[in-house]
């Protein structure tokens, strides 16, 4: 069946794919060679003369990868090769993880999140969000629900970056996230909020707010270096359109690991920086221990040694399709760290995960289906009790009222009105579980089918819904008429059709004036004009709010960029003071800079509040626009229908029904004559 979710295959062993991305640098080292076509990189390291004549160290290191992304590879190419296959698998019910690993300043955050200067610099996360909603829209046979969470791990503590309605001036203002393990051994993140996102715009807004709250601390190697691990997760729920109880739930993680660095080489001096580096290096060490344990097939894998490894437990050796991006800077001073990154990547490439589709039965949907089937069976049983005996002529087990109902030829006006409302509600109900609850009688069933047939043709019956004797009588008249009478009737019909054609041409020639005259007296036209005025006002309000949202977002980006420039200046000044020796003036300068930093944070928080307020108002106005637009379309349809029926209406309801019946009988007669 088209649109149905195919049966899930069994667990499949799949090796972790590893890609190498080379960062563009001003002076690339000549000791590094790479082949994007063959997927390998080679480092040539000359022997150190200080180690003496006997030196058996290697001079050449060559590492193969599943794919090599050269310095000129664009963000779009990186996404297509690295993340897009994992995203499509997540839509099919497979868990997925994409994580970046490398030295500080090698381009991990740029790969995962992207840059803010150009639209083309969008990273894997914003491109995955856009592709997710595009792919879901291209699969009309399924319905998808998307939730988003954003976790930061800083100094071995977890924080929720998407906590709504809270002022965030420091990391401690965010709610802490803890890990709990259930009886089955599954890990659960406590206090980590998940936010439902129905559109790409809402998801990108969540990403922007999370990135604004993310900790960015100074370090001499990279003035805008991420000093924490971040895990951005798309929670996807997929089910077949309709009442299918089978649901597939998957998670797609994007992990931006903090940069690995050597304290002695990076020049860290401040206590906070040393503490950050210690926790970062320690968590990456435990991550490497997990990788080695999985590579060697040990019975015990030390996942519980750190919060990071517990969060990535399923991504490493579990039920997840995982892809790693090893980021290196091809410069001479970073060759040792680049070789270490490549060695780590080779260990990761030897790990295989057992991946399978995550599907289960939704018990609430199962209950609704059983109730629906129960109602249908009850109706069928009632119909058999009433209609079955009546159709066979045996009324022993049939109620007297039901027998009398079947003997009638048509429904009463009240019954027609009730049935018409039931059929209309059934047609307009978008739920696949909706039922057309009519009386268990063939008279009602035939009448309901007549109404549905009329709606399908666009001419719902306005008079008696059950077929009366008029068409049969007309056919009998035609069958009994003589040939001369038929010829006379045909000539009369032809003359009438010619007259109608002349009148129709004249009406079409002056239809615009007729429509203007009709609109001047029609209440439906007043409703259309009112909806248009409201819609224009809402569009203008939405434009104003959209400008406010864009301006607040730009101001936040400018303030963050200014903060990073000040941090860069402070880092350079700190290095200079370290070489020349500090003084009281330097201490006063540091206090002044700290005060400026605090003022900048306050400004960012104010702009965030303004951004949130304008964005929520914009969402409300967009919802109003959708409602007014729908009402406008209904009013237009009603106005057009009234205009089409206007020449046939006299203003008297009974007379109007007779006129319509006359034209319906005339059409039936013409059809019988031409058969």
TrEMBL record:
Listed Gene3D superfamilies: Kinesin motor domain
Keyword Secreted attached: no
GO MF entries: ATP binding; microtubule binding; microtubule motor activity
Keywords of this entry: ATP-binding, Coiled coil, Microtubule, Motor protein, Nucleotide-binding
Bias-annotated ranges (Basic and acidic residues): 589-603
Domain Kinesin motor: 15-351
Protein family per UniProt: Belongs to the TRAFAC class myosin-kinesin ATPase superfamily. Kinesin family.
Protein name in UniProt: Kinesin-like protein
Organism encoding this protein: Chlorella sorokiniana (Freshwater green alga)
